[in-house]
Amino acid sequence: MSSSRRTVLKTGAASLALLAAPTIARAQATAANTLIWADDSNSDVTYDPRVTQSRHEEQVIVQVFDQLIMSDETGKLSPGLATAWEMSPDATSVRLSLRNDVKFHDGTPFNAEAVKFTMDTIADPATGSQGAVDMLGPYDKTEILGSHEVRINFKAPNAGILDTLTENELSIVSPAAVQRLGNTGFAQAPVGTGPFRFVSWERGREVVLDRNPDYAWAPTWSTVQGPSNVQRIVHRFIPNNATRVAALEAGEVHIGDILPALDTKRLADSGKFKAMIGVAAGLSFGALLNTSRGPFDDIRVRRAFMHSIDRPRLAQNLYFGIIKAAFGPLAPSTPGYWAGGEQYFPFDRALANRLLDEAGWTMGPNGIRVKNGQPLRVFFPSLLLPDVAVALQSEARRVGFDIAVENVLKQRQDELLMTNQYEMAVIRWVSNDPGVLRIPFHSSNIPEPGKFKFNWARVNDPAMDDLIAKAAQARTAAERTSLFAALQKDIMDRAIFFPIHDQVQTVAHSARVSGLRYARGNWQMRFHEARLATA
Amino acid sequence: MTAMAATPMPKQGGFRAIRFLRRLFLHPGAMVGTVVFAVLVLAAILAPAIAPYDWNETDAGPRLSAPSAEHLFGTDLHGRDVFSRVIAGGRYSISLGIATVLMSLMLGSLIGVFLGFTGGKIDAWGCRFLDVLLGFPAIVLAIMIVSVMGVGLVNVVIAVAIAGVPRFARVVRGAVLVLREQLYVEAARALGASDARIMRRHLLPNVASTLVVLGTLDLGNAILSTATLSFLGLGAQPPTPEWGTMLSGGREFMRYAPWTMIFPGMALFLIVMSVNLVGDRLSQVLDPKAKDRR
To answer: From the list A405, A411, A412, which residue is nearest B237 (CB)?
Structure first.
């Protein structure tokens, strides 16, 4: 579920894709009971859950695989491939009882061996895991206690592991298939235990999945307990927004991934389509302010910047009510969300002006503040969402900031960030774990030349590192929640992260389709319960 | 009256200039082109005086509102006045185009004269190299150059200019190959003129008319290429009202607010069309083989 760097890359490359004339996929003769999903990418490279770090790839993975513990979109834990689990009191191991009636799509049985194989290969550097290996954390080993009984051991407390086991990345793979196909082959023909089995993948065009006729181990919250009502899923790659919308309106696809706000609204208002708006869990879309150099080395200037922006109005203006303003480092749908952030940095232009006056920045003749002859200039290399940059630039200018926006490509952004040549940069990160805060706020993640990391505020404070470490190693859920709340408060108090708006998955689907459900984290969509009414 | 009588008769050159201008502009295409070009350039120059709103003001009107009396060309997503932005955009798009052409013209003719005059191995290798560069579509070459140098208007000008150099160099070299066999060049050489002097005094002035035609015809291309790079996000940075950037910004809202794309697109179309009309006529008039044609 973690945000993919590939997604970020794609955003940069998307503009290039515009050169290509939009080609609307030819309508294909498809079986009546085929559900067609239009994905906003065409750069998938692996469907191996152990390897992936891309939400696009996970959209396929979530249909093909099951997890040991399953959760619905609310985050409640339910038995999945494991029927029961027990954490050790020191949170260094978890014992799981497994179902004994589950078969992989290749006919081999699911058992303790498969769990051990999956966990061990994730931890093996040869697998090249991008997401799963971090999620497993301080993994030590998996002990087989019986044919359907395992204990997963950690070298340090890992209180979040039960939540983490629901992640797509920790899906259980078929050891027989991996051994037969090799890691590379498995990435292109994955075998799991999920409600749909992988049939084919035509790169850049589509992936085909067929329903698993033997599926009888759906989680309890599923409204469909046996095989899916949908016979086949076609996962079609249509990265261009306008083309995806056109394909949806022409009836060539049933569900459109990540549609522009205005299109989503229009389609939903037409009555022929329904919209599903999922607020993604993880880091809100926001700006990290570089505390290591001026003018943002002064907390008054950072606070002034934040008070100068009217976030609810910005979100309304740019997204027409579809996407809401964000107020804390974590999205409300993330476990451990702390609501206290909502009190921070309300829009107050007078206060912003006062703070800048106090900090010694006086208004210059051209509306830009100056101090010691230097203008209040903020360099903002912007990789994502250019319209947000324009809005920030124009609003902050009203209190005397000169925000120099440069729309950059990924490579240039990385270079500027690694060499500390920026005042602010925007980030977003999808994750179901509040532990994601480590990524942009731990001092070990300050970018350096040759080392691209995400602590773009360049906060280097042992107190904060300590809080991050303590929260990660909490032994009880309550302790974990309170430590993560303290961490979120600390981040807001320091005024280093300016939450701008939620990350939202805006899906529109034909009114013929029902029974769609977001997977946990509100990015992927589960199709097991879907139904397709006849036209 | 006496003053008039005292005025000396215009020299032969003055008549030639008037005749030239008459031939150039008394042609429907060139006339339309000139008028359109003049209007767009004037609007751009006078933008601060005639723009009804500050072109970067984000709350000039309601967002994405249709053209009306208050906002002739409507407003964009940020509530900026599209009319003000389009006329201000000319300041960037037109001057960038001209700067680009001047730069490729200068570099290209230097290289062309040098290769053509020097000849031999240097010329052979230089030409092969130019051929390789010509093999790349200019816009691809420009994108490559920008991705190495970084985004920004100045870099876009340099990139598009460099991408245009091979064309100028090729044409100038061809012209120089013919010229250097002329008797007056031989005469200059016999009188002991240095190579540099021959290139400067005898060769360059004689390829000038070719360069003017080529430069004018290239201007349309250059404006389009710089706008293309800005459209791709490699050129003008927000809030600069460059036409290519405006087109790209309006893309997402084409269905709901087509005016955010139509007007900057129209401006681009008009400027390129006008420049090409004038360039076409210029090439007819300056064509040495057609000297006596009216």
So the answer is: A405
Q: How far is CA A50 from CA A155, A207, A329, in A?
A: 20, 19, 27
Q: Is A40 on the interface with B (CB under 8 A)?
A: no
Which of A241, A263, A390 is closest, CB to CB, to B239?
A390
Considering only CB atoms, A390 lies closest to which of B233, B238, B253, namely B238
Neighbours of A350 (CB within 10 A): 9
Peptide bond into B28 cis (omega under 30): no
Q: Cβ A15–B233 below 8 Å, yes or no?
A: yes
pLDDT, average across residues A98-114: 97
What does the H/E/C string look like for A275-322? EEEEECCEEEEEEEECCCCCCCCCHHHHHHHHHCCCHHHHHHHHHCCC
- pTM for the model stands at 0.81
Instruction: State how far residue A302 is from chain B, nearest Cα, in angstroms.
Output: 22
B78, closest residue in chain A (CA to CA)? A391
**In the numeric block, which tokens belong to residue A55?**
């939400």
For residue A497, give the nearest of A505, A485, A508, A489 by alpha carbon: A489
The per-residue pLDDT for A535 is: 66
* The pLDDT value given to residue B210: 84
> Mean pLDDT across the stretch B179-189?
87
Distance CA A144, CA A124 (A): 18
- Contact B246/B86 with Cβ under 8 angstroms? yes
Measured from the Cβ of residue A305, the count of other Cβ atoms closer than 10 Å reads: 29
Half-sphere exposure of A525 (CA within 13 A, CB side): 29
The helix (run of H) or strand (run of E) holding residue A197 is strand A196-202
- Return the residue matching tokens 């480092």: A329
| Mean pLDDT rounded to a whole number for chain A | 90
B21-35 CB burial, b ≥16 within 10 A, e <16 = eebbeebeebeebbe
Tens-place pLDDT, residues B51-60: 999 999 999 9
To probe the interface with B, which of A9, A11, A240, A262 has the most B CB atoms within 10 Å? A262
Q: Token match 């060049």: residue?
A: B185
| Cα separation, B269 vs A508, whole angstroms | 36
Distance between CA atoms of residues A262 and A269, nearest Å: 11
SS3 A473: coil
Least CB-CB distance to B238: which of A15, A242, A405?
A405
Write out the two tokens for A528: 């097991």
Angle at A106 between CA A100 and CA A107, to 5 degrees: 40
SS3 B278: helix
Cα A370–Cα A374–Cα A379 angle in degrees, nearest 5: 100
Set of chain B residues whose Cβ sits within 8 Å of the Cβ of A412: 150-151
pLDDT tier at B267, thresholds 50, 70, 90: very high
Interface test with B, best of A258, A382, A407, A408 (most B CBs within 10 A): A407
- Please give the average per-residue pLDDT across A394-417, as a whole number: 91
Is it the case that residue B290 has pLDDT exceeding 60?
no
